Amino acid sequence: MSKTATLNPAPPTGSLWRRYRFYLSGLLFVLPLLYLQPYFDQLALFRGAAGLGQRPAGEVQVGTWKMQMAEFEVGAPKSDPAGRVKTFTMALCQGCENEIRAVYLRVGKPRSLRAAGAIFFGGPHRAFATVPIPARTKPDDELWLTAEGWDGSMHQAPWPLSAASPTTVAWLNTQGAKQ
Questions:
Q1: What are the residues whose beta carbons fall under 8 Å from the beta carbon of 164, sequence distance 6 or more?
Q2: What is the 3-class SS of 81-145, one letter each residue?
Q3: 113 — phi, psi (to 5°)?
Q4: CB–CB of 91/124 below 8 Å?
Q5: Confidence (pLDDT) at 47
Q6: What is this structure's pTM?
Q7: What is the DSSP letter of 44?
């Protein structure tokens, strides 16, 4: 008998693995392509190429100044070590950038300037404020904008929560306002 006739053939399971390795590597190459569009959407949002935020909320008149407001990310308030929070963006009116010292935002009317709320940070054309949403917040509550001028003047204006963030109002309705 010859030596080649006595060799056993390779088991077929090894060839099956080698065959599907090619398809598996192709799949691992294609899967990240499915996530490129959401990645580019987030990139445009954070760079400001998509506007102030995901949902423009209109203009709010605070004293003599108009501020363009937007909800940064549409959705329920996010959980944070400080509780539930929601991020809003703001752009100051043309020509009033040098008149306004600071702008604050909070749920409910502030008692004083010391309790004015979350301060907007960033440039005059795109500033951010992350507002805590207290557990006792009701769906018909208002956000209050407080603008402080360089001349010492202080102006306040209410902004209905339903106009600012309808998704937050829907979330509050499902949660039920806690007393």
A1: 57, 69, 71, 88, 143
A2: CCEEEEEEEEEECCCCCCCEEEEEEEECCCCCHHHCCEECEEECCEEEEEEEECCCCCCCCEEEE
A3: -70, -25
A4: yes
A5: 83
A6: 0.76
A7: H
Block residue for tokens 């309705």? 173
Structure tokens at 105: 């935002």
Q: How big is the CA angle at 109 (ends 65 and 172), to the nearest 5 degrees?
A: 110
Spatial distance between the Cα atoms of 136 and 38, rounded to a whole number of angstroms: 34
Q: Token pair for residue 78?
A: 């996010």
What CATH topology corresponds to 53-175? Immunoglobulin-like (2.60.40)
What residues are paired with 121 via a beta bridge? Answer: 128
Question: What are the residues facing 162 on neighbouring strands?
Answer: none
Q: How far apart are CA 65 and CA 51, in angstroms?
A: 20
Tokens of 175: 């949660």
Residue 179's pLDDT is: 43
Q: What is the mean pLDDT of residues 44-59?
A: 85
Q: What are the residue boundaries of the structural domains of the chain, listed by start?
A: 12-50, 53-175
